[in-house]
Amino acid sequence: MKTLIKGALISFTLAFLLIFEIQAQTQSNTLSKDKNFNQPVGVYNASSAGSAANASAGLQEQTPELGEPCSMYMSDEWQTGTIKLKGNTIYENVPLRYNIYNQQIEFVLDNDTAAVGDPATIEYIHIGGHTFVYETFFCENRLKTGYLEVLSEGRMRLLVFRNIKYVSVENDAVTGLESERKYHLDKIFLYAFPGENAKKLPEKRKELLALFTTELPDFEVYLKSDKNKLKSESELIAAFNYFNEHLK
């Protein structure tokens, strides 16, 4: 990607942001080397399956931990959105899309595809009903920085970080399959108290419950009445919303 030189009269000016042009031909091969987000699961040689039909099935059998199939984008379509910078500058009605694979927010500038190059200047971005912030968070004993979607606001925020797991399928003359990369969506749910970096939600139910019951002792009564098991994304959102509404 090369830096775009911006003139005084462009369709919209993203002040304080570094803007980069994205070359569509090489986009799918571009990976931020300083951020170990996207996880290669393995390389599958199609010839061991004996046929193109078996190859696809064998791929899934070898990698059952993969998430749901996806593209490199949260949505392939451009959606009208809003960018708010720190310092109250707001840009509205901007065509945006979230490139999960490259961890970039892309937009259209003078008929070119560009990406926000300095996301640290962003307060939030709205895209198609989703709100994103760019923050540092703890995950697997490491500090990482990336785009997080805000799922619940309040005393304890619920956020989700999306990244991609992928498997490379090698070209094979026997089956006729061409080399390709299959993408699968991975979601990491996080929580954050005011003034603290977000952390990955505890996997043990007892530790997860303690996040709520420490400040809201009757929280388990709500869980039982709502039959909320704190497992699905919708259950987590409902639980965090209940917690935050009762601690206003």
Describe this protein with a few key phrases.
248 residues, 17% helix, single chain, 12 strands, alpha+beta
Structure description:
The longest helix has 13 residues, at 233-245. This protein has helices spanning 52-62, 205-213, 219-226, 233-245, and strands spanning 19-21, 39-45, 79-85, 90-99, 104-109, 112-116, 122-127, 130-139, 142-152, 157-170, 180-192, 198-200. It folds into two domains: 19-201, no CATH class; 202-248, no CATH class. It has a five-stranded mixed beta barrel with strand order 8-9-10-11-12. It contains four helices and twelve strands. 17% of the residues lie in helices and 38% in strands.
Q: Name the poorly predicted regions.
A: 1-36, 40-64
Could you estimate the helical fraction of the residues in percent?
A: 10-25%
The radius of gyration computed from the alpha-carbon positions, rounded to a whole number of angstroms, is 21 Å
Tell me the number of helical segments per DSSP (H or I, 4 or more residues long).
4
Structural class: alpha+beta
What is the total domain count? 2
- Beta-strand content bin: 35-45%
One letter per element, helices H and strands E, the order comes to EEHEEEEEEEEEEHHH
Question: How would you write the strand order of the largest sheet?
Answer: 8-9-10-11-12
The count of strands amounts to 12
Mean pLDDT: 77
Distance between the termini: 46 Å
Query: How can the largest sheet be summarized?
Result: 5 strands, mixed, barrel
The 3D shape can be described as globular
